[in-house]
């Protein structure tokens, strides 16, 4: 009974083939591959060439699963069993599992594709990162290299101003100085962006006088804005705290960058700076900076992207001021300070930047005392001996001129790292100025050499003139006995101020 | 008389084993990727000289990220191996050394050619960074897409097999 059902319903997916020792077909049922008697299996499909090697091995069983056999444009995916015997009759069993394996193929397809895609993505990412790092390093190095010549240019034109010049010459010098400043600012911007992108821009928070800072800004910008025949309005809330804790340099940068942007984009009308106290809560002041202009304005399509790097609206028509980095830096700094910034604008009417920032308020009296002390340039009891280690002739000359002008210093210059120690031991040295671009010697190495000399030299202040000013570097400098780092480009008053402070 | 020899292609999935065989056997190439499962066998007869023909029975195996996972019966009676990897995807040649070692240990007398495929996707600069791997291990840099060096790979192997 059962057998008839089995006969009727058994899937016809097995083919049995009997072959002799040469592969000739003796008998077969034909549900899968149409095979003729007396043909050699080897001639039917190249798979069966394997028989030449297997048939001589008697009484064995070989199983080949998932074998793709293409037969007259049709593909069968089958499991093949080969049973060899020693009676010149060998059995081949073919089980057709095409449907089953096709499902398996779909799964494998999806799996492999997704793995390969994610690998390719990873590679692309890696490649992009490499490119990005290369670009950032390139920008940083290039900008550092520009710092020496600019420093010299700034200092020498500062020195020129004090000499006898006629009106025309003064005029030229004005232009040189303003170009110097421009160039310096652009390099600072590019460096800032590369620092931002490599995660090296870090805020340095200190207590400072907010009102005083704002006063300096308004004074400087009044001059700049009025020079362009624009009106400068400023309103500074009297309730603002005097002393706050934050990164003064960066706050100033936020305000000046937006103001510079306003100047660059406004040809008639006014620019207004308004700073208000939003509220004071738990000894924290929240302030609102608003900068309004009557410039070209920004259309709504561009509003979202003006804080992006290198984006500049209608760049052809803009007088070539700034390269569009200023606002990107602003956005980053505001975000780092946990504040917010937005812009409202109407084309040909003007723009308004609104920025809110929070700062800790500091104790007024304590700071005041400290500041009083700090602001007095310490009196030097006698002419001091400065040892300068610098191999750039330009910087040597720059410093020589600056110090000579005061009549308060003797300057001894050496250009090679090796000459440092003999000069310290054989001559009077009150302070060492050390360049960090000396051939073969890092400033850190030289400083620690000095600190390892006899005790007498342990206290001699060491100031490093550096083109780099990353936080890691600063830390390393301090650890190696360096008292202060001046970053290039510097100006003459900054240099003198620091010398005085260190020699006190 | 025609001798026939079994050549097995192995390597990670997607490195272009099937493509290399199609380039050699049919001289075609397709950008699409269809995953091979199990094994697929094709045949091509190569004329070595006027009186010397050789039939290459080429076994195209399902790609594996580890050669030890290969079904052993597939490798029975192999006369030569071609181990292929994808030059543009380092994962496919990260373990090249140990994969080759495995083959050399288990099939010491079977010729083996190690080929980096998809040469068209990479440049010299890129190849340089993997010099230490490629210099001593790789026999051929080929491209199934452009056909570069594919014919020569199989042809030279055929001559070796006589
Ligand atoms: N650019 C380029 N692409 C190639 C080359 N060879 C193969 N490919 C592509 O790579 C993908 C995978 O090729 P296959 O030949 O199917 O790879 P496989 O090694 O047989 O993969 P599995 O069967 O999964 O083991 C396909 O999209 C091919 O078009 C080549 O030389 N150059
Ligand atoms: Mg394949």
Provide a descriptive summary of the structure in words.
The complex is a heterodimer of chains A (504) and B (162). Chain A is α/β, with parallel strands linked by helices. Chain A is built from 14 helices and 17 strands. Chain A has helices spanning 2-9, 51-54, 98-161, 167-197, 210-227, 248-265, 300-303, 326-336, 364-375, 393-406, 420-426, 443-451, 471-479, 492-503, and strands at 14-19, 25-28, 61-71, 74-83, 90-96, 206-209, 231-236, 243-246, 270-281, 284-293, 340-346, 350-361, 384-389, 409-414, 431-435, 462-466, 484-487. In chain A, strands 6, 7, 8, 9, 10, 11 and 12 form a 7-stranded mixed beta sheet that branches. In chain A, strands 2-1-5-4-3 form a 5-stranded antiparallel beta sheet, with helices on one face. A 5-stranded parallel beta sheet of chain A has the order 14-13-15-16-17, with helices on both faces. In chain A, a hairpin with a 3-residue loop joins β11 and β12 (350-361). Chain A is elongated. The model of chain A is unreliable at 311-323 (pLDDT under 50). Chain B is an alpha/beta fold and 162 residues long. Chain B has one domain (2-161): P-loop containing nucleotide triphosphate hydrolases (Rossmann fold, 3-Layer(aba) Sandwich), CATH 3.40.50.300. Chain B contains 5 helices and 6 strands. Chain B has helices at residues 17-25, 96-106, 124-128, 131-137, 150-161, and strands at 2-10, 39-49, 52-61, 80-86, 112-117, 140-141. In chain B, strands 2-3-1-4-5-6 form a 6-stranded mixed beta sheet, sandwiched between helices. The interface between A and B is medium-sized, with 30 and 28 residues. The structure holds guanosine-5'-triphosphate and magnesium ion. Magnesium ion binds at residues 17-18, 36, 60 of chain B.
């Amino acid at each position: 009974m059962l057998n008839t059902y089995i006969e009727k319903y058994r899937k016809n997916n097995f083919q049995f083939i009997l072959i002799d020792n040469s592969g000739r077909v003796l008998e077969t049922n034909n549900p899968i591959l149409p095979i003729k008697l007396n043909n050699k299996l080897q001639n039917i499909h190249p798979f069966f060439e394997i028989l030449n090697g297997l048939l001589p091995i008697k009484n064995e069983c070989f199983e080949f699963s998932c074998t793709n056999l293409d037969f007259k444009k049709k593909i069968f995916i089958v499991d093949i069993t080969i049973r060899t015997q020693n009676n010149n009759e060998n059995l081949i069993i073919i089980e057709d599992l095409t449907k089953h394996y096709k499902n398996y193929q779909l799964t494998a397809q999806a799996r492999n594709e997704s793995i390969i895609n994610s690998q390719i993505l990873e590679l692309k990412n890696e490649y992009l990162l490499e490119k990005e790092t290369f670009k950032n390093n390139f920008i940083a190095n290039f900008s550092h290299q520009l710092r020496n010549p600019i420093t010299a240019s700034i200092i020498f034109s500062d020195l020129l101003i004090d000499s006898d010049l006629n009106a025309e010459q003064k005029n030229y010098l004005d232009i040189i100085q303003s170009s110097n400043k421009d160039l310096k600012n652009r390099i600072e911007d590019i460096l800032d962006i590369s620092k931002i992108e490599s995660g090296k821009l870090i805020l340095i928070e200190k207590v400072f006088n907010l009102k005083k800072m704002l006063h300096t800004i308004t004074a400087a910008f009044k001059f700049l804005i009025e020079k362009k025949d624009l009106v400068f309005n400023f309103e500074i809330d009297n309730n603002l705290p005097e002393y706050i804790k934050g990164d003064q340099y960066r706050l100033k940068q936020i305000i000046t960058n937006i103001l510079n942007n306003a100047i660059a984009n406004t040809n008639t009308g006014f620019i207004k700076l308004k700073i208000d106290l939003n509220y004071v809560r738990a000894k924290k002041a929240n302030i609102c900076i608003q900068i309004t202009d009557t410039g070209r304005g920004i259309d709504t399509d561009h509003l979202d992207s003006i804080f992006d790097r290198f984006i500049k609206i209608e760049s052809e028509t803009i007088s070539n001021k700034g390269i569009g980095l200023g606002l990107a830096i602003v956005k980053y700094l505001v975000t780092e300070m946990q504040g917010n910034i937005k812009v409202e604008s109407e084309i040909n009417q003007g723009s308004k930047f609104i920025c809110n920032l929070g700062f800790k308020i500091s104790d007024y009296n304590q700071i005041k005392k400290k500041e009083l002390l700090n602001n007095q340039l310490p009196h030097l009891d006698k002419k001091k001996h400065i040892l300068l280690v610098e191999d750039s002739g330009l910087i040597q000359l720059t410093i020589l001129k600056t110090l000579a002008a005061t009549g308060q210093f003797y300057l001894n210059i050496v250009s090679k790292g090796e000459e440092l120690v003999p000069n310290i031991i054989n001559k009077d040295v009150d302070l060492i100025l050390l360049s960090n671009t000396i051939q073969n010697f890092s400033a850190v190495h030289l400083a620690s050499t000095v600190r390892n000399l006899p005790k007498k030299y342990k206290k001699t202040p060491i100031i490093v003139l550096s083109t780099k000013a990353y936080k890691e570097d600063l830390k390393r400098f301090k650890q190696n006995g360096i008292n202060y780092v001046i970053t290039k480009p510097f100006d003459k008053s900054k240099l003198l101020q620091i010398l005085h402070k260190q020699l006190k | 008389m025609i001798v026939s020899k079994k050549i097995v292609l192995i390597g990670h999935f997607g490195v272009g084993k099937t493509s290399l065989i199609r380039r050699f056997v049919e001289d075609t190439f397709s950008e699409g990727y269809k995953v091979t499962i199990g094994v697929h066998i094709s045949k091509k007869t190569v004329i070595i000289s006027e009186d010397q023909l050789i039939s290459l029975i080429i076994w195209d195996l399902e790609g594996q990220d580890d050669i030890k996972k290969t079904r052993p019966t597939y490798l029975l009676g192999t006369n030569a191996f071609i181990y292929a990897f994808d030059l543009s995807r380092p994962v496919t040649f990260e373990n090249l050394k140990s994969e080759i070692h495995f083959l050399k240990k288990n099939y010491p007398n079977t010729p083996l050619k190690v080929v980096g495929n998809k040469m068209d996707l990479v440049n010299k600069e890129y190849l340089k960074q993997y010099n230490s791997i490629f210099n001593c291990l790789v026999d051929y840099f080929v491209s199934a897409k452009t056909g570069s060096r594919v014919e020569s790979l199989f042809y030279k192997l055929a001559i070796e097999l006589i």
